[in-house]
Design brief:
Blueprint: H1 3-18, E1 21-23, E2 26-27, E3 33-35, E4 41-45, E5 51-55, E6 60-63, E7 72-75, E8 81-84, E9 90-93, E10 103-106, E11 112-116, E12 119-123, E13 139-141, E14 144-145, E15 151-153, E16 159-163, E17 169-173, E18 178-181, E19 190-193, E20 199-202, E21 208-211, E22 219-224, E23 230-234, E24 239-242
Antiparallel strand pairs: 1-10, 2-7, 3-4, 4-5, 5-6, 7-8, 8-9, 10-11, 11-12, 13-22, 14-19, 15-16, 16-17, 17-18, 19-20, 20-21, 22-23, 23-24
Keywords: Signal
Protein name: Bulb-type lectin domain-containing protein
Organism: Chryseobacterium glaciei
């Protein structure tokens, strides 16, 4: 067997062994598929700039929503997974910088997780930006765009946040009784928890019709809590906005 063939075989098996874990400082190659161990899920940084987590069938499980904006993706040395756009501007981030994240794992259970050794810091199913209908994590991370009709439940399933078809962002009890709203019915076109930490409802002309005014406050997550409160926390778990203080 030739040395070249042996080298190719070694590279192939090396990719298979290491595909499920992405280490610090690793840039994601465009259009390469990073597979889970069981070969049922893969992560791909597409040539359109979107970072997408897929089932083997090609069904998307999670995405960074950076299509036509992303130009590079990297799991940085500081433990942050970031998609950069023009002028090296971050258009998506898991906001896990400097928390000891040392591996990004494509798991057999269909979850994409950043770990600090064995401690999870971020997960695609835990409010990781796609807001799957009925998710019960309670947490929504920066960069999340709300999809009409999807519900993010509190961990105890007694409350949920949804962006309604009428353009209103509403926190409700599980029986549908509203607790808080952005009061943007018939005005809102989309809602986002932006990378700058601001929760905003925009109209169809991309004009803000409601916002939490939490941009550049260090806000890192939006939480639908078991006590029926909607809260924005900073990186140190300090409250920077709460629905109960806005009623």
């Amino acid at each position: 067997m030739s040395k070249n063939l042996l080298a190719l075989i070694g590279i192939f098996f090396g990719l298979l062994i290491n595909a499920q874990n992405i280490r610090n400082g690793q840039s994601l190659q465009q259009d390469r598929k990073y597979w889970s161990d069981n070969q049922q899920f893969y992560l791909q940084f597409q040539n359109d700039g979107n970072l997408v987590f897929y089932r083997r069938s090609g069904t998307p499980v999670w995405e960074s929503k950076t299509a036509n904006r992303g130009s590079s993706a990297i799991f940085q040395d500081d433990g942050n997974l970031v998609v950069y756009g023009l002028r090296n501007r971050a258009v998506f981030s898991t906001n896990t910088a400097d928390r000891g994240g040392n591996k990004l794992t494509i798991q057999d259970d269909g979850n994409l997780v950043i770990y600090n050794n064995n401690n999870p810091l971020w997960a695609s199913t835990n409010g990781g930006n796609n807001g799957s209908s009925g998710q019960r994590s309670g947490n929504i991370n920066l960069g999340h765009t709300f999809r009409s009709g999807n519900k993010t439940y509190s961990p105890n399933s007694r409350y949920y946040l949804s962006f309604q078809a009428d353009g209103n962002l509403v926190l409700s009890r599980s029986n549908g009784t509203p607790i808080w709203s952005s009061d943007t019915n018939n005005k809102g076109g989309r809602a986002e928890f932006q990378n700058d930490g601001n929760l905003v409802v925009y109209d169809s002309y991309s004009k803000a019709v409601w916002k939490s005014n939490t941009s550049n406050t260090g806000a890192s997550r939006l939480s639908v809590q078991d006590d029926g409160n909607l809260v924005i926390y900073d990186r140190n778990n300090n409250v920077v906005w709460a629905s109960s203080s806005q009623q």
